[in-house]
């Protein structure tokens, strides 16, 4: 930061602000009076790194016009000889008092007194009189530079301007005073002081602007930082690479992404030093733009440049990878972070919870939650809801209830409508009607009206329990509340129909016709078993083209399931063909020289059985035509099971293939795969009869 080394010790008087430095040691007493400027004041690699990771807004300035110390304690000869004084000598104490070490210490104490005194001219003058009448410009700079109270600093500045008749560089006095305003995060005060400076005819320099820019940054006012940066040419000031690097962050935060990237490209070309704050901003910019590879590239470039990531950068990167739905990257980055001995803070855990929750990494998310509880870290409502939504997605009913109880006991978070919605979804998918109704009542008591999401989950719950009248009642409640059924709600009604006895389907058909006339017409054609192939295909095609892309597959799956339940195999095949032509389904059948496969992982049970029926017919035609089958044939059902059921597609198919007496057997080394050889398949296909589809 500006003037950091200048005020950190008595050995560097005008270090990084104006290169007016004295290299006075404790042991030798310097005999030459003028304090020679040091052109390079970075004595070690450590100090270089400090400059790298924070914005050094004070720059080295031309030394030729610097003021000389007017303190009478300094002799006037210009030799560089030193006189050793025996510390046991009676003169040692007196000589120490004459050294500038002692003077510097007294000036720092004056600054401390000014910070604590009342902000009025009389009290400030009382403190400053302790300096005596022989006050140098350097003394004034030291005092102001060590102050932190902007109110008394202004009064002190005015006093120094009165007693210093012709300051060599009055801009220095203003710069260190502006720095005091930066310490207090008072940009308005700093700007007013700048205006006064211009009115007095004092020309600002690079340090002036870099201090104002850094003040705007610490005040979280990036637009103001940009304004001050763009004023620099007006006053004949050319930004240096440190200021340019800082502006990458400012432009990024101000929303001028193009300028931020332009400066970053230039920074890489010209090898500017970039601080971690700027790297963090670049990662955020790429993350907001959805360029998550860009986030990782910045991170890798940062490490390649030798800059060490700090905790803020790790947290920013974890958050970006979470939004990118790349939980494996989150794990890698977190592992690297802990290996570098960074302890996770609240922001780290929040980023991990969001990342694992969104990716449905249930166990990982729960482990993070447990660690937060063990450390006594409180969650926000949003984080609780993230956990509960994840539990709903992966079917962790017991864990969700425990989290909900923790939330209520926390005393800092109250459940909102999203909280109740997730819990109702969990109970609804599990078919726990009384528990779901209990949460609905608790929600109403808390003052929340049921949302479309809650009512959708209730319909799903009643449907799973085959309580058709309650489904109809809930649907009517939706209309009474003035809620317009959306695609998800209608899809839920359609899914309920696949679980409803045939005799009760007309009740739900009426609901669907009110909610979505196109969907209602297609379902009515199926339920009423109306003939007219062309009419059904046309209606189904219009429906699937009309609905949103995010629900097309769900609608198509449910319609095929309904056809299979109603023994309408021909209609099911038509819908599957339509789904393939509209690219709702893709790559269900695949062929290579060594294996032909049926891929069913994205299909519902009814749709998968329909696809099997079509595939078997296709294989039969191949055998009848005399074409050769490949050495191996396989059916891929996936290895998962339904999150709220022990029954997966593999279990259903294992049973169904046995019913068909098909020679497919589960592969021991490939979970979810059923394989057979060319010889066995050909023999079976030649002997088989058309199988009846049965939904397990």
TrEMBL record:
<dbReference type="Pfam" id="PF13041">
    <property type="entry name" value="PPR_2"/>
</dbReference>
<feature type="repeat" description="PPR">
    <location>
        <begin position="170"/>
        <end position="204"/>
    </location>
</feature>
<feature type="repeat" description="PPR">
    <location>
        <begin position="451"/>
        <end position="485"/>
    </location>
</feature>
<feature type="domain" description="Smr">
    <location>
        <begin position="598"/>
        <end position="682"/>
    </location>
</feature>
<feature type="repeat" description="PPR">
    <location>
        <begin position="380"/>
        <end position="414"/>
    </location>
</feature>
<keyword id="KW-0677">Repeat</keyword>
<dbReference type="InterPro" id="IPR002885">
    <property type="entry name" value="PPR_rpt"/>
</dbReference>
<dbReference type="GO" id="GO:0042134">
    <property type="term" value="F:rRNA primary transcript binding"/>
</dbReference>
<dbReference type="GO" id="GO:0045727">
    <property type="term" value="P:positive regulation of translation"/>
</dbReference>
<feature type="repeat" description="PPR">
    <location>
        <begin position="345"/>
        <end position="379"/>
    </location>
</feature>
<comment type="similarity">
    <text>Belongs to the PPR family. P subfamily.</text>
</comment>
<dbReference type="GO" id="GO:0009570">
    <property type="term" value="C:chloroplast stroma"/>
</dbReference>
<dbReference type="InterPro" id="IPR011990">
    <property type="entry name" value="TPR-like_helical_dom_sf"/>
</dbReference>
<dbReference type="GO" id="GO:0003729">
    <property type="term" value="F:mRNA binding"/>
</dbReference>
<dbReference type="GO" id="GO:0009658">
    <property type="term" value="P:chloroplast organization"/>
</dbReference>
<feature type="repeat" description="PPR">
    <location>
        <begin position="275"/>
        <end position="309"/>
    </location>
</feature>
<feature type="repeat" description="PPR">
    <location>
        <begin position="205"/>
        <end position="239"/>
    </location>
</feature>
<dbReference type="InterPro" id="IPR002625">
    <property type="entry name" value="Smr_dom"/>
</dbReference>
<dbReference type="InterPro" id="IPR033443">
    <property type="entry name" value="PROP1-like_PPR_dom"/>
</dbReference>
<protein>
    <submittedName>
        <fullName>Pentatricopeptide repeat-containing protein At4g16390, chloroplastic isoform X1</fullName>
    </submittedName>
</protein>
<dbReference type="Pfam" id="PF17177">
    <property type="entry name" value="PPR_long"/>
</dbReference>
<feature type="repeat" description="PPR">
    <location>
        <begin position="416"/>
        <end position="450"/>
    </location>
</feature>
<feature type="repeat" description="PPR">
    <location>
        <begin position="310"/>
        <end position="344"/>
    </location>
</feature>
<dbReference type="Pfam" id="PF13812">
    <property type="entry name" value="PPR_3"/>
</dbReference>
<feature type="repeat" description="PPR">
    <location>
        <begin position="240"/>
        <end position="274"/>
    </location>
</feature>
<dbReference type="Pfam" id="PF12854">
    <property type="entry name" value="PPR_1"/>
</dbReference>
